[in-house]
Amino acid sequence: MASTVSGSTAFTTQADPDTGTFQRRLGDVSTFFFDSEEGKILGKTFKQWIFGAIFYLTFYAGIIAFMLACGAVVYQTLNWNMPRLQGQDSLLQQNPSLGFRPVPSVDMTLIRFIKADPTSYSPLTDNLEAYLQFYENQNQVTDTGVMVDCKTYNKRRPQTEWDKACRYELNNLGPDCIKQQAFGMDDGMPCILLKLNRVFDWHPEDYHNGTEIPAEIQDTYAPYNVHLKCFGVTPADQDNIGDFEYHPPEGFHFKYFPFRNQQGYRSPLVFVRFMNPAPNILIMVECRAYAKNIRQNSVERAGVVRFELLVD
User: Fold this and answer.
1) Residue 129 — pLDDT band, cuts 50, 70, 90?
2) Residues in a beta bridge with 100
């Protein structure tokens, strides 16, 4: 007789490992924020937090005190009325360069417009007008109201007046280069404004005799003036540039120097009027300032300025 033994199969149920891991991690995070057993907050005891705060407050207070001390030392060495580096130690090394207006934009020197088309030259005339507004009589003021009327001076000003600003008269720029005539651009004879860049306590020096005067300005040079001369850069530019008029014709008079950061000081100006530039041709122009102590270097832009002119 055969007997059959039947057995049963046993099944074992295991817990989900991820569930325990999540609960453990959640407990670790809550313990990190606040551990009631060791009395820690964010992993540190209250005493550790106090010492840490004192350390960082002391550290940053020391840095701030050091920076303030350095600033105080620098502040004491500064003079608000004159630069610390002067003469040959300054960036310009007592050799002024020229600037011009209008400036079409900060990254280009091309002056281009269409003759008798106000929409093309209105940005240029607006730039000139805005710059010349600083020279209006009502804008040439100081806190003390002290300015020198330089009309009577034909040479240098007395040294006793060097620390006062010399009033500049816009009438010196002539009757043609004015905003009512669009600074000559409506007629295709543009007026370009030139000025010497300011160099603290710089005094222009006159040529002592005729042999010192450069040949290119001997026929037009006037004593006690920084003379100006413009010309085309290349032979082709010289053929296309035409004739010039300078207002005032003598240049920058010595009586407006030196610049000593006087209140109300205005740099002297000269308008260069291009009488008949060739139309539709790009002309490269270079203007130079002449005095015995002005060195001209086209590469370094010392004593010179360059720009391009295109009259369509």
Assistant:
1) very high
2) 194
DSSP secondary structure letter of residue 183: G
Residue whose C-alpha is closest to residue 223's, from 231, 213, 232: 213
**Which residues fall within 8 angstroms of residue 229, CB to CB, at 6 or more apart?**
216, 217, 287, 288, 290
Residues 6+ apart with CB under 8 A from 240: 232, 277, 278, 281, 283
DSSP state string for 202-267: ------SSTTTS-GGGTTT--TTEEEEEEEESSHHHHHHS--EEEESTT-EEGGG--B---TT---
Question: Is the four-CA dihedral 256, 139, 98, 175 of positive or negative sign?
Answer: negative
- 252 and 196 Cβ atoms separated by less than 8 Å: yes
The torsion angles phi and psi of 253, rounded to 5 degrees, stand at -70, 145
The pLDDT of residue 3 is above 60: no
Distance (Å, whole) CA 244 – CA 190: 10
Predicted TM-score (pTM) of the model is 0.75
User: Which neighbouring-strand residues pair with 62?
Assistant: none
- For the chain, what's the residue count? 312
Residue 281 and residue 284: Cα distance in Å, rounded?
10
What's the pLDDT tens digit per position in 78-101? Answer: 777 777 667 666 666 678 889 999
Tokens of 51: 């010492």
The CA distances from residue 306 to 101, 233, 299, 300, in Å, are 12, 9, 10, 11
